[in-house]
Specification:
This is HD-GYP domain-containing protein. Residues 113-309 form the HD-GYP domain. InterPro entries: HD/PDEase_dom (IPR003607), HD_GYP_dom (IPR037522), HDIG_dom (IPR006675). It comes from Natronobacillus azotifigens. The chain is an alpha+beta fold. It has 3 domains: 2-52, Molybdopterin biosynthesis moea protein, domain 2, CATH 3.90.105; 68-296, Hypothetical protein af1432; 305-357, no CATH class. It has helices at residues 36-44, 68-88, 94-99, 101-116, 134-152, 157-168, 179-182, 190-197, 199-208, 215-223, 244-258, 270-279, 287-296, and strands at residues 2-5, 19-21, 26-28, 49-52, 129-130, 305-308, 312-318, 328-334, 337-345, 354-357. It is globular, with a radius of gyration of 21 Å.
Length: 359
């Protein structure tokens, strides 16, 4: 099956995997041929990628770091907890003590187990799920990316668990931001941006009152927008002043934000998201964290169509371990001419490189 951006879908494309909402209900079943109205609706709802069936890519296996069932459960858990915080209000923190710790710990432990049991690089997480609020899916995606970084850095299980809890709660302060500001589609005023920025401090103050959660969870909320050169917020602290968890979350948070569809811009592809991280490596983001994240993510996910440097077009078939930029590909065109498909292993064809995504 092929992985296609919703912006590149064509009428009549046949879905190879169903489209879910965050309650686990199937909105569009697999094997359906998409109409223009369906394509428009998917784009409106913020779906970034879908899987399309065709004969050439029929045997390509699309790999996900966690099961669809676990992702749905994770989004539902975050949604339930965040809505509870919002309904109880910022000052009523007893709700936090009673309801958060066990749920969050059990959820994070399950995600950690699935990722650690999987020896393949991560595929992008912005696919096949429609959420009624970006905040919930973003929190889960950032948790998955952060745990993958923790594994690559060989953090202990306890530290990985603490990071996971901090990651899943890193944006909790946003539930206390007025919705008209948080979900505004147009350009924010300077005053509105200051309100948005306050979610870091709100999250910190809310979480640090808990006797059940690790204090580091509060610091994850506080520091995920800090940058090495002091240009971040809320305190503008620098390099060694930033906790390692804050540095990990900065990378995971930015990558998911730019590779997800938002009301004000289209999603970037993984390589484009990584280019942003590399452009800020050493200045905004920790170099080692960016490096290990790049090694942990499928830059060119299975099923995506790419252009090669010798004017061939190919579909990514599978990943080569520790060679994220050199997967096995299936050539489908040569100089824009359709050819009988054949596979090419870029780990051995060293003179051939991927130069970008095909449109």
């Amino acid at each position: 099956m092929k992985l296609v951006t919703t912006r590149g879908l064509q009428v009549g494309s046949e879905l190879a995997k169903p489209i879910y909402n965050d309650n686990g209900r199937i909105l569009i079943q697999k094997d359906v041929n998409l109409s223009q109205a369906m394509i428009d609706r998917l784009q409106e709802l913020g779906v970034t990628y879908v899987y399309i069936r065709d004969e050439i890519s029929e045997d390509i296996i699309i790999h996900s770091p966690i099961s669809d069932e676990l992702k749905i459960e994770s989004i539902q858990t975050v949604k339930s907890l965040f809505k509870g915080y919002e309904n109880q209000g910022f000052k009523n923190k007893s709700f936090l003590f009673d309801h958060t710790s066990n749920k969050m710990t059990n959820l994070v432990d399950t995600i950690i187990r699935q990722i650690q049991d999987d020896d393949q690089v991560l595929s992008i997480m912005s696919d096949i799920f429609i959420s009624d609020d970006y905040l919930f899916t973003h929190s889960v995606n950032v948790t998955i990316y952060s745990i993958a970084i923790a594994n690559a850095l060989k953090l202990t299980n306890k530290k990985t668990q603490e990071l996971g809890i901090g990651a899943i709660l890193h944006d909790v302060g946003k539930v206390f931001i007025p919705e008209e500001v948080l979900k505004k589609e147009g350009r924010l005023t300077s005053d509105e941006f200051e309100v948005i920025k306050s979610h870091t401090e709100l999250g910190f103050e809310f979480l640090r009152a808990s006797q059940e959660l690790p204090l580091l969870a509060a610091h994850c909320a506080f520091q995920h927008h800090e940058r090495l050169d002091g240009s971040g917020y809320p305190r503008g602290i620098r390099d060694e002043e930033i906790h390692p968890f804050g540095k990990i979350l900065a990378v995971a948070d930015v990558f998911d934000a730019v590779t997800s569809n938002r009301v004000y811009r289209d999603a970037m592809l993984p390589q484009e998201g990584l280019d942003i991280l590399y452009a800020g490596s050493g200045k905004l983001f920790d170099q080692e964290i960016v490096r290990v994240f790049r090694e942990s993510i499928a830059i060119y996910p299975n099923g995506i169509t790419v252009n090669l440097n010798d004017h061939r077009t190919a579909i990514v078939v599978r990943q080569n371990e520790n060679l994220a930029q050199r997967p096995v590909v299936r050539v489908i065109k040569e100089s824009d001419q359709v050819v009988v498909p054949y596979d090419l292993d870029l780990s051995t064809a060293l003179d051939i490189t991927i130069i970008g995504y095909a449109h």
